[in-house]
Amino acid sequence: MASDFIRDIVTADNASGKHGGRVATRFPPEPNGYLHIGHAKSICLNFGIANDFGGTCNLRFDDTNPVTEDTEYVRSIQQDVQWLGFTWDDRLFYASDYFERLYACATQLIEKGLAYVDSLSADQMREHRGTFAIPGTDSPHRDRSVAENLDLFARMRVGEFADGAHTLRAKIDMASPNLNMRDPALYRIRRAHHHRTGDAWCIYPMYDFAHPLSDAFERITHSICTLEFEAHRPLYDWLISHLDLPGTPQQIEFARLNITYTVLSKRKLLQLVNEKHVNGWDDPRMPTLSGLRRRGVTAQALRRFCEEIGVVKRETVIEAGLLEFCVREDLNKTAPRAMAVLRPLKIVLDNYPADTSEDMNVVNNPEDESAGTRKVPFGRELYIERDDFMEDPPKKFFRLAPGREVRLRNAYLITCHEVIKNADGEITELRCTYDPATRGGDAPDGRKVKATLHWVSAAHAVTSEVRLYDRLFSAEFPGTGDSDFLTQINPHSLERVPNAQLEPSLATHPSGTRVQFERLGYFCVDPDSTPARPVFNRTVTLKDSWTKAKD
């Protein structure tokens, strides 16, 4: 079992008999956007603690703001949680399930003299609230009678008043040093169609009211939130202590996830989508779980990443390279190898028999013997990477050059003897010879070569579009200070390679299949792919090339 300060709290609670040794957590997303990698940390933590202690974890949608919520988000969130490997069994809930109970709790607070209907406008309430240095001032409506507040609140519910005309507020302390305790709003009038309740309600509870009560209704024991809710905990506890509820949950805060070269603000992610800086929520450059999945990141790698970063109380920033490391570590073990040439340069083997081909037996994954082998066709005409040849190479360039011998992976040693160019001086073809005695790639006389190149048979190659994805932002901390995060979008975050040449085994893989293109990186079949024209997304390079690329 993992160890962190939250698990230590749960262990101590169990030892003391708190909650009768019962452990119940929940993952409570708002259905107003797609989940991102920060949510993955919370999912792994909440469901992980439940698994570790033999407890339960609910999935509950905090759907209290119908203006921003949509069933599309509900579906995507459920899919993402399941993809990460977790299940909520029959414990799927919505805050909207509790609208009647929440209304009854608000009425109970009014009856106890702990809530009142305020008729100040939003701007006036803001003025009365004060600042960190200046105490707030009481609303002129704060001393309305219980009877008047009950009457006004009931009339708010049936739609008698315009949006914004009245607000239900808790009566706590306008001089509190914690601004969240200065008579916070509990209900507001908002005429908007709700994705589940339709037009049945025109008043909706505030998140800070609905969240602790929903936890209590579900008898959650440990309500785990990110650190920005620490200042809201006194209100959470105040509501739990002043209402007759079936449970007494405890709120615990941990530091949210921050990653370099990434934004995790829902508002900013929505802006990227709406303004078409990316191609939707599942764009492989997005830090959303659907985007990471489409890019080829595995659930196992993401869970490993969450384990590596741990759970702490203090805000930290995680290097993006750690996620890439976890992805490489996972895919190195599980992804079959294949050969693909992204920028093809044609080779003709002059001494290889024309109209002839043969199959090379190639290992699918040297890290996994059970993956077996495959047949890769070889012929007289081949493609290699254009970058693997230089006509006038520098000293440390060991790949193919005129008069030089290199190895073709799992095939033969070849030597280049002629360079053919077009009228513009561009190299279009290389004429080479092969050594028939070196089948498999090694010379029987023991001679050595300094480079091994991947290749594809031209006669059997499958033309593919390959999308080379890189980090979405060129700034390590996009949007900090006075900078506009949109101006820091990496212009090279997507490069489309339209005519990559792939070995034929890659033509029929279904969407989501992950492979290693030898010497190039890890790639994933995109949903746009067809057998006639496969489409592959680069998941991650074989090693970190970001720093070198930017120098």
What's this model, at a glance?
This protein has 551 residues and is an alpha/beta fold. 26% of the residues lie in helices and 23% in strands. Helix 7 (207-217) crosses helix 8 (233-242).
List the helices and strands and how they pair.
Blueprint: H1 5-16, E1 24-27, H2 37-52, E2 56-61, H3 71-83, E3 92-94, H4 99-111, E4 115-118, H5 122-129, H6 146-157, E5 167-170, E6 185-189, E7 203-205, H7 207-217, E8 222-226, H8 233-242, E9 250-254, H9 266-274, H10 289-295, H11 299-309, H12 320-334, E10 337-338, E11 340-341, E12 344-349, E13 357-363, E14 373-379, E15 381-385, E16 405-408, E17 413-421, E18 427-434, E19 452-453, E20 456-457, E21 462-469, E22 494-502, E23 514-517, E24 521-525, E25 535-540, H13 546-550
Parallel strand pairs: 1-2, 2-3, 8-9, 10-23, 12-18, 16-19, 21-25
Antiparallel strand pairs: 4-5, 5-6, 6-7, 11-22, 12-15, 13-14, 15-20, 16-17, 17-18, 21-22, 23-24, 24-25
